[in-house]
Specification:
Blueprint lengths: L1 E4 L21 H12 L3 H8 L3 H12 L11 E2 H4 L3 H6 L6 H10 E5 L3 E3 L4 E2 L18 H18 L6 E3 L3 H4 L11 E10 L2 E3 L2 H17 L17 E2 L8 E7 L1
Parallel strand pairs: 1-3, 1-6, 6-7, 7-10
Antiparallel strand pairs: 2-5, 3-4, 7-8, 9-10
Helix pairs in contact: 2-3
């Protein structure tokens, strides 16, 4: 079973490494995107990303200072590079050596700049959301640029697994890049909802964190079968058979 998660807009302030570091899979492709972004005038970049003046300046600086070679001195492990809600739930800094090895084989991070990342892949700070309408050749946006590449890579990776299953713990923005018609294996989705005054409610921040918590749970307990997720009970969330379907697991918590 292969799990996928989204990156976060916010990144860790300092480089942190897990060893051994690995190289990103789509080196040539991400360098092409990077070169295009580095040449883009500030006002055009701001319009493309819809960012404030301050954030645009910071983003420009990231790209202009992007290392020519990402290694142990200039890079950081992908699984430790982000600091958003998903990664607070994932808590990769507490992974054991066995956890890291399992995660490297069973977890992938989707990325607007890098395409697909393994936990140990070395990256540098960046800002590029998958929904960005960055034109490249005949592609009007990053979905067009990455869809086939990411889908083929995930399909090839899952082929090497005993349980050929894709578990989606990514956001809608990132999962959209996958061409499901070309995935021959079962795809499972997970959703977290809260029960308040007898009614189901959704909480975006809670959902993000719990996706990370579930990814942590999978890695800690070396889970390779979706059915084993039914015993998940972290932070008071419990599997709801009444709200679930065959490939859509729903977990509820009363607040």
């Amino acid at each position: 079973m292969l799990s996928i998660i989204s990156p976060s807009k916010t990144m860790a302030k300092e480089n942190a490494l897990l060893t051994p570091g690995t190289n990103v899979y789509f080196e040539k492709d991400f360098r092409m995107l990077l070169k295009k972004l580095q040449k883009m005038p500030k006002n055009q970049l701001q319009q493309l990303m819809a960012t404030s003046d301050k954030l645009t300046d910071e983003t420009c600086a990231l790209y202009q200072n992007f290392p020519e070679k990402i290694d142990a001195e200039t890079g950081r492990s992908a699984v430790l590079a982000y600091s958003g809600d998903v990664y607070q739930g994932l808590n990769a800094k507490d992974f054991t050596t066995e956890d890291v090895h399992f995660a490297q084989d069973h977890l992938r991070i989707l990325s607007g700049l890098f395409g697909v990342l393994r936990p140990l892949d070395l990256i540098a700070p960046y800002r590029l959301e998958m929904a960005t309408s960055l034109v490249t050749g005949q592609n009007k946006n990053l979905y067009g640029f990455w869809s086939k590449k990411i889908t083929d890579h995930l399909h090839e990776t899952i082929q090497g697994h005993q349980n050929k299953i894709l578990l989606n713990l990514a956001s809608g923005e990132y999962f959209k890049v996958i061409d499901q018609k070309k995935i021959d294996f079962p795809v499972y989705h997970v959703e977290f909802k809260e029960v308040k005054n007898g009614k189901l409610t959704g909480n975006a921040l809670t959902n993000k964190k719990m996706r990370g918590v579930m990814a942590n749970y999978i890695i800690k307990y070396k889970i390779d079968n979706p059915e084993d997720l039914m015993s998940f009970s972290e932070y008071g969330f419990l599997f709801s058979e009444a709200h679930a379907t065959h490939n859509h697991f729903v977990f509820l918590r009363t607040v």
